[in-house]
Amino acid sequence: MAHGPKKHLKCVAAPKHWMLDKLTGDEVKKICMQRFIKIDDKVRTDITYPTGFMDVISIDKTAENFRLIYDTKGHFALHCITPEEAKYKLCKREAPGSLDGVHVKDANGNSFASQLSNIFVKGNKPWISLPHGKGIHLTIAEERDKRLAAKQSSG
């Protein structure tokens, strides 16, 4: 039994002025390539550029500024801000920088690099007794050669 004419219009026959959900990034690419989008006051044309917590997103053509913050549910949300507020960044992550390195030579004469925070020196000799081999870790090949040399000298 028919229930009357169907009122659904297929997407193919939809007028051009309808705002349909687009799955492509063509609009995003066009806007970014026109250099309208600034992230932290730098023009970004990469559509996959990552934005993070407290980043300022500015659109010069519309004179809008947004700050990327967390909402109450812990999701990222855009918060409208004034141009004066967009001039500074509230949160900035800084890397600790390069670590100071030290080159150390062990009792066998092998030299290796380590961080300065891992090393401390008091005097010219160890204050505790060192285990067999003076605390030096030998590779498997070095252990084998040492065993063979001991076996040949004793036998």
TrEMBL record:
Give every Small ribosomal subunit protein eS4 N-terminal domain span. 4-25
The record, for Gene3D superfamilies, names: 2.30.30.30, RNA-binding S4 domain
GO terms of molecular function? rRNA binding; structural constituent of ribosome
What are the alphabetically sorted keywords of the record? Ribonucleoprotein, Ribosomal protein, RNA-binding, rRNA-binding
Q: What is this organism's lineage?
A: Eukaryota, Metazoa, Chordata, Craniata, Vertebrata
Domain (Small ribosomal subunit protein eS4 C-terminal) ranges: 106-151
**A GO BP annotation:** translation
Is Ligase among this UniProt entry's keywords?
no
Q: Which family does it belong to?
A: Belongs to the eukaryotic ribosomal protein eS4 family.
Organism whose genome encodes this protein: Myotis brandtii (Brandt's bat)
* Name of the molecule in the record: 40S ribosomal protein S4
Under the cellular component aspect of Gene Ontology, which terms does the record hold?
cytosolic small ribosomal subunit
| Span of domain Small ribosomal subunit protein eS4 central region | 62-92
